[in-house]
């Protein structure tokens, strides 16, 4: 009889292919959204062609939320304090988000305005959905302004009703809300006493099942659940939490991993995604990520997945405004998108995200004295003057973001 090891015995948090999977899923989102943005793939998200319950982008988002649920729960359990956990999450999410907001409002959208108007004049003074309010309305991750100054009106996306410069970013609010939920569970001790955390996660999975089976009206009980996308995102995150809490009990088997991926593909094609498929896909992901260790160095130099995810839609939207899909065809369009988002994501990581991550464990002297702990210098580059210059782009971005928030609020 072959002994089956547990996922906890096999999973190595440093030697896995999760970085590759996140990169691949970011492009699954991009390729899926290319349909409604550029009018290729029949003008719809991949999956809509055969009536799938969710698009290819939705499949990828399921994977993102599952992996986040697992890894973020692990982070909270191992964190030195709730404050440090929250600081890590803020440092990872917000700086890159601020950057894409500023780049979109003051580089990409102006180029779209110039293409349609033949001039940059009038862009900043446009009264509706002003670029001067775009950062202020969206910097918290709660999106209150989708369009900018009427730009992109000729694109296939706007004609379908997607008048937005970042149709992928709506998930970030829910992602961060899940982070806060894990923080709350950690503070009350529900993660260390894992049965309590498991009950909470299991309860969310049960509600998701009720929603998938159309049992009852959850929205009439809890207003938040009137939006079905809430549970569609929370469920894979909760499943990731459950897997992490009982990682020593989850079986790890190649046959099971392959079978789960096949089941996931079948459910995506024929139905049952939100009942079975998403959980099969989640297991298949962590099986692949754990088993295929040859790709562990994929993001060793730069983790581009987040930058690709949040820049994909804006870049595609701008290129669609310039008519690239019609002029060069869908293949060339996607090729150009792939190149541009890689360049953007690399610059975002090296100039903004990496310096922010170097501050994850930073403890300045003044705060260390107050807390009576040892100070900790930023990681990754020493303490000299030249080493500190790597923080200049990040500091400038934070200043610009703060100014634009004030301008937007005053306006």
Largest beta sheet: what is the strand line-up? 1-2
Number of helices: 18
Task: Give the SSE string.
Answer: EHHHHHHHHHHEHHHHHHHH
Radius of gyration from the alpha-carbon trace, in angstroms: 22 Å
Summarize the biggest pleated sheet: 2 strands, antiparallel
Q: Separation of termini?
A: 71 Å
Strand content: under 5%
Outline = globular
Query: What structural class results from the helix and strand content?
Result: mainly alpha
Helix percentage range: 55-70%
Number of domains: 1
Keywords: Membrane, Transmembrane, Transmembrane helix
Protein name: Peptidoglycan/LPS O-acetylase OafA/YrhL
List the helices and strands and how they pair.
Blueprint (H helix, E strand, L loop, with lengths): L4 E2 H4 L7 H21 L17 H23 L3 H36 L13 H8 L17 H4 L10 H18 L6 H20 L4 H4 L6 H18 L5 E2 L1 H17 L2 H19 L13 H17 L2 H5 L1 H28 L7 H7 L13 H4 L3 H19 L1
Helix pairs in contact: 2-3, 2-13, 3-7, 3-10, 3-12, 4-5, 4-7, 4-13, 4-15, 4-18, 5-18, 7-10, 8-10, 10-12, 11-12, 13-15
Structure characterization notes:
It holds the Pfam family Acyl_transf_3. InterPro entries: Acyl_transf_3_dom, Acyltransferase_3. The protein has 411 residues and is mostly helical. Helices cover 66% and strands 1% of the residues. It contains 18 helices and 2 strands. The longest helix is centred in the N-terminal third of the chain and has 36 residues, at 82-117.
List descriptors:
two-stranded antiparallel ribbon; 411 residues; mainly alpha
Give a short summary of the structure.
With 411 residues, the chain is mainly alpha-helical. It has helices at residues 7-10, 18-38, 56-78, 82-117, 131-138, 156-159, 170-187, 194-213, 218-221, 228-245, 254-270, 273-291, 305-321, 324-328, 330-357, 365-371, 385-388, 392-410, and strands at 5-6, 251-252.
